[in-house]
Amino acid sequence: MTSSASPADVQARSGTVQSIQRAFGLLETMADHGGRMGLSQLAIASGLPLPTIHRLLRTLVDLGYLSQDPSRQYVLAPRLIRLGESSGAMLNLWARPHLDRLVDELGESANLAMLDGDQIVYLAQAQSQRSMRMFTEVGRRVLPHCTAVGKAIMAQMEPAQVAGLLRRTGMPKHTEHTITDPEGFAAALVWVEKHGYAVDDEEQETGVRCVAVVVPDAPARLGLSVSGPASRMTEEMVQRAVPALVTAAAALSTDLS
Q1: Is CATH 3.50.50.60 the right assignment for the domain spanning 7-77?
Q2: pLDDT tier at 2 (50, 70, 90 boundaries)?
Q3: CATH 3.30.450.40 for the 81-256 domain, yes or no
Q4: Residue 186: exposure state from Cβ atoms within 10 A (0-12, 13-18, ≥19)
């Protein structure tokens, strides 16, 4: 499994400001670890010296993007919501044409979703015009272990990150098909990495099947999915949906670059 690019990966590029790179790198690291970390944890995860991390964290606290809880751990603060809401609205705008094309081609609902902390949040959607369409609304948050988008995204994360997320969420059972043990989930992610797409086979909601791919080289952990009633989301439909999703994800990635 491979991890997505971080600000540290582009440190050598000309014209960049190192302190800004490092500050955003710390925010992203915290987001990947559930939004709450201690100073020593951040030092290990980032590889930065403790004095540097402490100076950056104090600045982010002063600006309102971080806070400290009674245990002295750093926590992502509500001021980030303003940035998230604005970026979410822009993602909705950019994604909509690609989602509409997926609905036109496949006839089922299409979604853009993101891994935000330990949850999948739906950012944009184009609804099917058919009966028995899906009612996953924009803004809804679900746990990633029982969603196709969650699996697709987590298949590209480091195993330690996946294990930490699953420990924090607890992998609750939503249906009789939900994968609830880490070993079984790890095997499922190997399958996803090998095949390039993920399937939620009635794992989040009985009677609903979903197929998803990641948006490559995106500025966040994004995925596109197509979902519908299991009676219509047959294996043949999944095989039709995968190349359409891959094409749409590549086009959206270009728009976001």
Answers
A1: no
A2: very low
A3: yes
A4: middle
